[in-house]
Specification:
There is one protein chain. The protein contains 11 helices and no strands. By secondary structure, it is an all-alpha fold. The longest helix has 23 residues. The protein is globular.
């Protein structure tokens, strides 16, 4: 499965791009399929409810989460940190972007939600509450991604293991989380080296994706 695409109007870099072909198209996955993945990963559910999840009303309600997941992939692609398209590593990234969005926005596990709240409070203080509400309503934001990435970096392995049960409910592991957060940090560093800000690049792509009007 490949999902890479060419972000329209990508923010220009101050440096020349590498020899890697920029922004290979990821039109090979239709939006409807991505919607299906997002809808069915919102919470652990039975096979029957997953089938019903692809009905039109659910797809519409999930569109902000679809757009947010697509914007994350576009941002990481612009940073040139994504694995080659069509590889198992690429599939793992797609899965992580979608599933962790669901885990942190929908999970009722105390450890998962506590980790998220602490990550936001440590980085943004009093702005943590509105940022969390926005995330739960519309999906990923640059602030959420950066707060989680920073929290992962300063948290011990023993403390991170407390997330295992909650993440497991979404078919995720602590190792999956650490790999995803490392990719976010690598993307942020690569963009910074080009004179770009992760938040600005993400917001630029997010505006072009489904569900942007409700943000």
């Amino acid at each position: 499965m490949c999902l890479w695409f060419r972000p329209e109007g990508a923010i220009a870099s101050n440096r020349s791009r590498s020899n890697r072909t920029p922004y290979p198209l990821f039109a090979s996955i239709p939006l409807s399929i991505l919607i299906f993945f997002v809808v069915t990963s919102i919470s652990p559910s039975s096979a029957e409810s997953r089938i019903h999840g692809i009905q039109a009303q659910h797809a519409r309600s999930a569109s902000p989460f679809v757009g947010s997941a697509m914007a994350v992939l576009a941002t990481l692609e612009q940073a040139s940190v994504l694995p080659p398209e069509g590889t198992k590593e690429a599939d793992r990234v797609i899965r992580s972007v979608i599933q962790f969005q669901s885990a942190f926005s929908k999970s009722t596990d105390a450890s998962v939600q506590g980790f998220l709240r602490d990550a936001l409070t440590n980085k943004y203080g009093e702005e943590a509450t509105p940022l969390l509400e926005r995330f739960r309503a519309n999906g990923w934001t640059a602030e959420i991604l950066e707060a989680l990435a920073d929290a992962d970096q300063r948290t011990s392995a023993e403390e991170l293991e407390r997330l295992a049960t909650g993440l497991g409910q979404f078919n995720l592991s602590v190792d999956d989380f650490e790999r995803f957060m490392q990719l976010v940090r690598e993307g942020r560093s690569a963009l910074t080296a080009r004179g770009q800000r992760f938040e600005e690049v993400y917001d630029h792509h997010r505006k072009a994706m489904p569900g942007a009007a409700g943000r």
